[in-house]
Amino acid sequence: MALSLASFQSCFKRTERNLQIFSLLMGLLTILFFYLAFPSGGVPELAWFTLVPVLFVLNKLSLRNAFMLGLLAATLGWFVSIWWVIAGLAEITSSSANIMLPFVLLFCLLSALPYAVACWTHVRFKFGHSISGAFFSAIVFTVLVNYIPHILPGNLAHALYQQPIFIQLADIGGVALVFFIIHVINILIANGINFSTSNTTKATQCFGLACLLFLANMAYGSYKQHALLNYVDAPTKTIKIAMLQPNIDVSNRSRIDWKNAQATISQLLTQVNKEQGIDLIIFPEVPVPISFQHYQNDGLFFNRFLAETPLLLTAISPFDESTTQDVSYFNTMELIESNAVQQEYAKQVLLPFGEYLPYEQQFPWLRKVFPFAPNYKPGNTSTLFTLNNAQGESIQAIPLICYEAVFSEQIAAGVAQGGELMINTSNDAWFFQTAGRKVHLALSLFRSVEYRQYLVRATNTGLSAVINPYGQIVEGSEITADTQGYSVVDIPIEKHSSFYQMFPNFIKIIFILICFVFLIYARVKNVNR
């Protein structure tokens, strides 16, 4: 009897150890899929299967182990997808990558918590044991990952940025609804695999429903793209825009560096001047300090080439060599016309570490760790730039500097004020030739689908392009990355609108209410037992 009990305990421990090893392997497989699916990996098709390995094994785990597996997989998944941030932020702050590493790891850990809680919830409420559970679990994932404020709102939905047919649901529920579809399909596949050995009927239903949802999403995307091709109404207005890509290396950061760069910039501006009928020239964010209104030489330089053509210049106010708390400056856009700045916009959403030190007031030691970190001040006013075309018609443009374009709420404010066109300027050269610029483009591109507006994205070194209202890159608008160049695009200002534009919180409210009602139901059911 004692021998049998000992044998049973030994077998149990061995089985438990095997399960832990298997769970880790499934977690590593999900991490690999996440890396490959995200823009950093370039295999977006894997987004539809990325979570299947982890979700498959969750049913066999305890609540604690489910939480820990979700936390581990999501933390490492985030890290392998945004590792390029380390070198980029180290370059911006003139610090060591070794110093930046623990801060990035902490960010990844915090970003993983919603996934860990969702995995715990999946096991706690047995969402892996039914078809309806797949939908509830996907809603929980969606609410936790998308509706909790985040400094870098990236997720699996952004893996599909080069496949616009699959992201058109963003015009109903934003990125969150695309995220929901991806996750409910992942969960149905995982549930189907689990049912395959015990209930083939349910397994078939899970796989069939996953295929049906995939095809329905693709059909909606095809319908929307077909509507674009057959849009018969002529645009009420058009504007001809020239985007410059200066390709100034980030090692150049001073006024002297800017003066040295002007020789090649002059050649670029001379080429642009030969183009006919340009309504606006866009000069993106660059690493050197420039400003039409604060640096007299800059005004003289640009006026040599652009005396009659309006210029949208991404600039900064003058700053001192030191970057102490007492010395601050704005990251701005200047709309220059008739030899004067007609309008100005100060960036409102700043990049942590890249433009300011988060929680510096609470943790003053951060300034000692990052003594050369920038110290920008956020603007506090949303502004629309009034642009004029050759016919004298005005177009209201929403200015977005760098990372502001990844936040849907930022654009919503501009659209509500009457914005008709989004203009985003950025300097992604800080991330060198890594996937960083692809990720930045992917996160920004969804705004064009959500609000059915054109997005002009002008960058220092790439990726520069114009995105149409259906998330497609306009042919001829791209400028080869890491080269100096320009592109000229005629942009029609079409009067499209979207459900998301009119009711941006509708899906959010519905999903949160479903979670709330389900929790009450589960609580009452538990009490009655």
UniProtKB/TrEMBL annotation:
<feature type="transmembrane region" description="Helical">
    <location>
        <begin position="172"/>
        <end position="194"/>
    </location>
</feature>
<dbReference type="GO" id="GO:0005886">
    <property type="term" value="C:plasma membrane"/>
</dbReference>
<keyword id="KW-1133">Transmembrane helix</keyword>
<keyword id="KW-1003">Cell membrane</keyword>
<dbReference type="Pfam" id="PF00795">
    <property type="entry name" value="CN_hydrolase"/>
</dbReference>
<keyword id="KW-0472">Membrane</keyword>
<feature type="transmembrane region" description="Helical">
    <location>
        <begin position="206"/>
        <end position="223"/>
    </location>
</feature>
<dbReference type="Pfam" id="PF20154">
    <property type="entry name" value="LNT_N"/>
</dbReference>
<feature type="transmembrane region" description="Helical">
    <location>
        <begin position="69"/>
        <end position="87"/>
    </location>
</feature>
<comment type="pathway">
    <text>Protein modification; lipoprotein biosynthesis (N-acyl transfer).</text>
</comment>
<dbReference type="InterPro" id="IPR003010">
    <property type="entry name" value="C-N_Hydrolase"/>
</dbReference>
<feature type="transmembrane region" description="Helical">
    <location>
        <begin position="99"/>
        <end position="121"/>
    </location>
</feature>
<comment type="similarity">
    <text>Belongs to the CN hydrolase family. Apolipoprotein N-acyltransferase subfamily.</text>
</comment>
<dbReference type="GO" id="GO:0016410">
    <property type="term" value="F:N-acyltransferase activity"/>
</dbReference>
<keyword id="KW-0808">Transferase</keyword>
<dbReference type="InterPro" id="IPR036526">
    <property type="entry name" value="C-N_Hydrolase_sf"/>
</dbReference>
<feature type="transmembrane region" description="Helical">
    <location>
        <begin position="46"/>
        <end position="62"/>
    </location>
</feature>
<feature type="transmembrane region" description="Helical">
    <location>
        <begin position="133"/>
        <end position="152"/>
    </location>
</feature>
<dbReference type="InterPro" id="IPR045378">
    <property type="entry name" value="LNT_N"/>
</dbReference>
<keyword id="KW-0012">Acyltransferase</keyword>
<comment type="function">
    <text>Catalyzes the phospholipid dependent N-acylation of the N-terminal cysteine of apolipoprotein, the last step in lipoprotein maturation.</text>
</comment>
<dbReference type="InterPro" id="IPR004563">
    <property type="entry name" value="Apolipo_AcylTrfase"/>
</dbReference>
<keyword id="KW-0812">Transmembrane</keyword>
<keyword id="KW-0449">Lipoprotein</keyword>
<protein>
    <recommendedName>
        <fullName>Apolipoprotein N-acyltransferase</fullName>
        <ecNumber>2.3.1.269</ecNumber>
    </recommendedName>
</protein>
<feature type="transmembrane region" description="Helical">
    <location>
        <begin position="506"/>
        <end position="524"/>
    </location>
</feature>
<dbReference type="GO" id="GO:0042158">
    <property type="term" value="P:lipoprotein biosynthetic process"/>
</dbReference>
<feature type="domain" description="CN hydrolase">
    <location>
        <begin position="239"/>
        <end position="493"/>
    </location>
</feature>
<feature type="transmembrane region" description="Helical">
    <location>
        <begin position="21"/>
        <end position="40"/>
    </location>
</feature>
